[in-house]
Amino acid sequence: MNSSSTLINALFIFVLAGFIGFEVIRRVSPLLHTPLMSLTNALDAIAVVGAIVLVGEHKSTLSAVFGFIAVVAATSNIVGGFLITDRMLKMFKSSRPAAKPAAK
Amino acid sequence: MMTTELAGSQVVIELVYLIASVLFILSLKWMSSPTTARHGIWAGEIGMLLAICGTLLHHGIVDYRLIAIALVLGTIIGVPLGRVAMTAVPQRTALSHAFGALCVTLVGSAEFYLRTPDISRFMMAVLSLEVILGGLTVTGSLMAAGKLQEILPQRPLTYKGQNLVNFVLLVGALVIAVSLVLHPEARVLFPFMILIALAFGVLLIIPIGGADMPTVISLLNGYAGLSAAAMGFVLDSKLLIIAGALDGSSGLILSIIMSKAMNRSFTNVLFGAFGQVQAAAAAGEEAKPVRSATPEEAAAILSAANRVIVVPGYGMAVAQAQHKVRELYDSLSKRGVDVRFAIHPVAGRMPGHMNVLLAEADIPYDRLIEMEEINGDFPQTDVALVIGANDVTNPAARSDASSPIYGMPILDVDKAHTVMVIKRSMNPGFAGIDNPLYYLDNTLMLFGDAKAFVGSIVRELSGGHG
Question: A27 is in which domain, residue-wise?
Fold first, then answer.
């Protein structure tokens, strides 16, 4: 079913994506580590695509039920994760352009 | 005809997934700076939306009603989770790790029952990895969330033979996994593997204390990512592999940063049960003399200073003092005092926790300085004001080789001309380690609730000025 070439392809993708992730995330400012975590959490909920297919295909009751709960869990992560990341990032303001009148 | 059509929609889906993958990577790239970070959210959201819409084109989908209900229900749960108070962000994050892992574990389990016994050995091995990692992340994250929400005791709970029990459980799960790889028709074994993983998650987090939460949350983040990547292998979904690898490397990097900031290894965090030993050691300490000061005195010293560095810690979050701290910042800045904030990587309960709280209180982010950058400035600093931080300022980490935190990088507050520490009482901090900082000649203890005390200082400052 799964030939060894698809497996090798998948491994290539995993390793390369891991490297990209490592290099990109290393550059994230420590200032933003909390929003980074809530953002990766929302992105990780892309697992919802697997769950959607499970529900939609409805191959067995068990798979549909598990898939249903999985879609609910992942969707709440997507919605909640993006919402809170946005709320956090909105709070980060610099003192330079900020309209803080010089207090003198 | 039929097959070419299917192939066509399949190609479209894969292309959409490719775009989504690129957007995800850009999304993380833009997180590198606060000025571009909000583009990152847009990229992530568009990628997510594209991926979900693309998936709905999947030719095998016959039931859209259930999917719609699940999406709506998830949104209804997700919105309040996106609106929690900033102080509750660590437990929210732990909870969302649990949700993510729950999704992965359930999908893995469903795939197991759909595919076995006709499953290749490799696939069964990856599937086992997926559900074991997923399962332990579900319960482990729930435990972490419970501790952070203080539903569960934050103190480490330890018992004799703890590591042995954990080890036996882990081996048990692996033995079942291997059996299933060799004999996938033995489906009765599968629920036991899940149960062991769930139990392992609970036992893994029970002995970990609150102060180690930044590392644990990062580690669980990494596990959630890896289990999602494993799910990508099972479903042959490149998008999922990429997202999982990104999340996994993010969790890994943060865990490394956190561990380094505590001068400890992963295994030490996971199997060390930190707080227990020192709590006993500190109990024997006799009261040494300390100097304390009133809000009036503190206000006088602060207003006479040129350079002030504030060191916030978890105590500030507990006391909800961040808004009072902002008032203090405003008041001192108005008098021309240079006020900056020194952020230790493990201050608080998750990576970046203090930055978010202070940003919420409207303190500009360019005033929040990382440990390496600000440590050299303490000797030229008139006042270091420690609010609810303890271990990250403990000079014993530099000098006392017998201290349990020896070697941990700390903020060198003791090098400032005057150190002021706001603290409820002389009780040792969370990890139960005594802090020699409090007995130094240049240290003034400000006893009281952080919020109330900072409030009184602010009142003194405005009164004295008018």
Answer: 4-91
